[in-house]
UniProtKB/TrEMBL annotation:
Domain Probable transposase IS891/IS1136/IS1341 as annotated: residue spans: 180-287
Superkingdom per UniProt: Bacteria
InterPro entries (alphabetical): Cas12f1-like_TNB (IPR010095), RNA-guided_DNA_endo/Transpos (IPR051399), Transposase (IPR001959), Transposase_put_HTH (IPR021027)
Annotated organism of origin: Nonomuraea mangrovi
Domain Transposase putative helix-turn-helix: 1-43
Pfam family, one: OrfB_IS605
GO molecular function: endonuclease activity
Family: In the C-terminal section; belongs to the transposase 35 family. In the N-terminal section; belongs to the transposase 2 family.
Protein name per its UniProtKB record: RNA-guided endonuclease InsQ/TnpB family protein
Stretches assigned to the Cas12f1-like TNB domain: 314-380
Keywords: DNA recombination, DNA-binding, Endonuclease, Hydrolase, Metal-binding, Nuclease, Transposition, Zinc
Amino acid sequence: MRRSFKFLLRPTSKQAAALAQCLEDHRELYNAALEHRRTAYRRAGVTIRYGDQSGELKHIRADDADGQARWSFSSQQATLRRLDKAYASFFKRVREGRTPGFPRFKGRGWFDTVEWPKDGDGCRWDSQPEHPTTTYVRLQGIGHIRVHQHRPVRGTVKTISVKREGSRWYVILSCDGVPTQPLPATGAVAGIDMGVASLVTTSDGDHLANPRHLAASADRLAAAQRDLARKKPRSNRRRKVVSQLAALHAKVRRQRLDGAHKAALHLARRYDVIVHEELRIANMTRSASGTLEAPGRMVAQKSGLNRSILDAGWGVLLTILSHKAESAGRELIAVNPANTSRACARCGHCARENRLTQAEFACTACGHTAHADVNAAVNILRAGLALRRAAEAA
């Protein structure tokens, strides 16, 4: 099983400057490679591929001994592969008829990750194992950087990445052969309904609260945004406010991630089988503004709902839940969400009128009443168990 481990770096001031320069040089390499591809195709109709650009790296490094040559050859190849993947994704979207989104040049602040594809090639995890209390990672051109390792690393380290988030630096390890940690069987099964009022409602009637981290920080974010609007473009004061605003958003993101881990762990410990809706969150949060010819309706209400859905972090929770379920030996089933909130869990009657309010459900056919989210969770569980029986019978 492959897993990632993310740790905070504690670089010195010189190491932080070297890390920033490493990112900048890799950004310039990415942009130069993109310009190379665009120019070759526009002027000569020639398609440049990864192999062509990788073969030119040795000449680039030879001509820039104090710049590109300082960094790992393998990490630069990884940056070129990153561009190649961007092109592959572009052509895939074209074939599928989606909005293509041609690869763009990376501006300052839009290139924050460098990858070393192999532990030991330009990088080394736990580079000073003889140290009794501290873990270090060694990066070519930067040196041994202290790591705040808050949990043990399992499996074999395959790739090492460094990521900048605001003023913080992180190291991300991708490990193969991570052993599973099965939890004891409980014999319990549950369907879960994702919501805004409650983050998760189970078919047992339990509600996991939605902490609404973005709403809790809305006043500070609004104040910082107003302060930003008053600053002169490209001024030092504006850059300072931008960093403060980024730090606030980063804190909200970390809070949301922490809450998702705790909720997913609670569900994985309690249930052997967990059934959830297969939500298309990108479609659910699409803008309702419409066009000039056909303007949307209730745009402000839809905008507020989209903000609440994204603040709840359903996608983050489901992703983490799938990882924890796999590690714990739990079964996770995704079902079609159509009509799960309108159908009666007792008689199956489906009608829009059954859902009286956000929290109240009353069947117009049999008179069954329940909390609307609990009723939906029961329907989700029933649909998941039906899929499971069909798969076992096949």
